[in-house]
Amino acid sequence: MQLINKHNSLKNSANDSKRISLKSKLAIAATGLLSATATETIANEATDEGWYFSASVLAYSETDRVSAVEVIFNAETTIDETGKLNIKFVLDSLTGASANGAITQNTLQTFSRPSGNGQYNIAAGTTPLDDTFKDTRAQLNLSWSNLLSPESDYQYTLGTNISKEYDFQSISLSAELAKGFNQKNTTISGGFSVAAEEYNPKGSTPIGLTSMAIRDNYPTEDVYDLAFDATRGSTSEAINSAELLLGWTQVVNRSTLMQFNYGYADKSGYLTDPFKIVSVVNASGITQDYIYENRPESRTQHSLFGLVKKHLNESIIDFSYRFTSDDWEIDTHTLDLHWKLFADGGSFWEPHVRFYQQSAADFYSTYLDQSEEVPPFISADYRIGEMSSITLGLKYGFEVNKDQRAEVRLEYYRQTPKSVGTERVAGLENLDLYPELDAVYLQVNYYF
Amino acid sequence: MRNLFRKAKLLPLLAMIVTLGGCSSMGVEPWDRDLLAKSSMAINASPLDQSIDDHIYFSKEAASGGRSFAGGGCGCN
C-alpha cells in the first residue's frame, strides 16, 4: 500500500558509540523473537546502523469507564538493500467499566457477573456498567517485504499477527503484492489476509437469548448455580475471517499524492459479544428480565477509502474519506484531516479532526418490549447502534538530537449514540438511554 | 429499493475513480520527487499513531479497515 521509499533506509547513520551499543542490544532482543536461522541471517546482514527503533506509550481514559495503558515497541531493518523486516510488539492493559447493554431504570438494578460468581448493583438513573472489565493483552506483528527479484517492479509483503489476552486469542497471516507503473507514479496492489480468533470466557459463553440468572431470585446458591449453568454454552468459540484489499496509489504532481482502496472482509463464527445483555421491558418501561444478546454468525463488509495528501509551502494536508457498508445494514462514513505545520528547528505542530457516523445494525434494539416476539438476533450494544463521533487532536513533534526525535499527541474523542426511533413503550422519557461517552488519550512517540 | 439507494451512494466514488482513468498522464519525473521523498509525505507517515487509532476505533465503533486490513486481534469491549 505504501510507495517504496528507499531513501529512508539511508538516513541516520550512527556515530555515537553509546547509542550503537543500545541499538545493538535492542537488535539482538528483537531478533530473539525469530527462529535461530532467521536471527543468524539477519545478524549477518544487518549492521548496527541498519536498525531503526520507535516506541510509543499511550494513556487512555474514558470518563467513568475504561482506562488503558499501551506500550508499543517497533524495530525495522533493511536487508540486502531492498528487503525490509519489521517487528512490532504491543502490550496493553485495560481496566474499568463497560456498558453491559441494559437500559437505565428509575430503580436499583442487579446483574450477575459474566462468570456467574457474584453480582453487582446499578443505582437508579445510572447507565448499567459492568465494572469488572480487566484484561492484559500482548501482540506480536512480523512483516517482511522485498522486491520479487532485483530491479523488479513487483514488491511483496508477508505479515503475521499474534495476539493473546486472558479470554481471547487471535492469529492472522497476510500477503500483498504491489506493482509500480509509469516511473512508479502509479502503484497497484492486491492483498489477502486470513485470521482465526478464539474466545474462552471465564464461566463459558452464554447461550444467546436466554435469561440472565440472578442470585437474588433463587433460594439457595446451589439452585442459582443450576440456573446459571443452564444459560451457559460452549467454553470456547471461534471466529474465522478472510479479507481482500485492493489499492491504487497515484502521484498527481510534485506535491500531491492520492490513494484509493477497496476492501472486502468476511467474518464467520461467534460474532456475539458474550458480555452484552438486552433489557426486556413491560408497557410501563420497567425492566422484567435481561436476555443475553445474539448476533448472526456471519458478517460481510465492503469498504472504500480515498486519501489525498498535499505538500503546501510550509505544511502537509492529509485528508481521507472512508465509506463502509455491511450485511448487518451498518453503513459508516469517516472523514479524517491532519494538517502538519512545520516549525523552526525540525519541529512541527499537527492539528487533527475526525468525524464518524454509523447507522444501526438491522437487529439492534435498545431494549425488547415484553409484548413483542423475541427475534432470532438482537443486540443493545450501542457500538452497533446509530451513532456519531468526533475526535479533536493536536500533536507536537521535535528533534531531540541529530538522530532522535519525539512526538507528543493529545486526542479528545466524543461518542454520541442516537435513538433509532421513537420509544415504543412509556415511562422511559426521563431516562438517558443514549449516554454520550468522552475519552482523552495522551501518547508519546520516540524514534531512535 | 434500499439496495438501489445504497448503490447510488457509491456513485460519487465510482465517478471519482473513472475520472482518474487518465492517470497515466499524471506523475512526475524522478528528479522532481524532492517533496514526495520526505518521510512526512509517506502514505502512512505515522504508523504508531495509526496502530493506536485503529485499536481504539475498532473497539468503539462498528467499522474497521479501509486504509489497511480491517484486522481484529482483540476481544475489545
- CATH structural fold name of chain A: Porin
What coarse outline of chain A follows from CA principal-axis ratios? elongated
Give the overall pLDDT of chain A as a whole number.
90
Strand content of chain B: under 5%
CATH architecture assignment name of chain A: Beta Barrel
Give the terminus-to-terminus CA distance of chain B: 34 Å
**Residue windows where pLDDT falls under 50 for at least 5 positions of chain B:** none
Q: β content of chain A, as a range?
A: over 45%
Helix content of chain B: 40-55%
| Overall outline of chain B | flat
Structural commentary:
The complex is a heterodimer of chains A (448) and B (77). Chain A has 448 residues and is mainly beta. Chain A has one domain (6-447): Porin. Chain A is built from three helices and 21 strands. Chain A has a 16-stranded antiparallel beta barrel with strand order 1-2-3-6-7-8-9-10-11-14-15-16-17-19-20-21. In chain A, a hairpin with a 2-residue loop joins strand 10 (237-253) and strand 11. The longest helix of chain A has 15 residues, at 17-31. In chain A, 35% of the residues are buried. The model of chain A is unreliable at 1-19 and 43-48 (pLDDT under 50). Chain B is mainly α and 77 residues long. Helix content of chain B is 42%, strand content 0%. Chain B is built from two helices and no strands. Chain B has helices spanning 2-19, 47-60. The longest helix of chain B is centred in the first third of the chain and has 18 residues, at 2-19. Chain B starts with a helix and ends in a 17-residue tail after the last helix. At the A-B interface, strand 1, strand 2, strand 3, strand 6 and strand 7 of A face helix 1 and helix 2 of B.
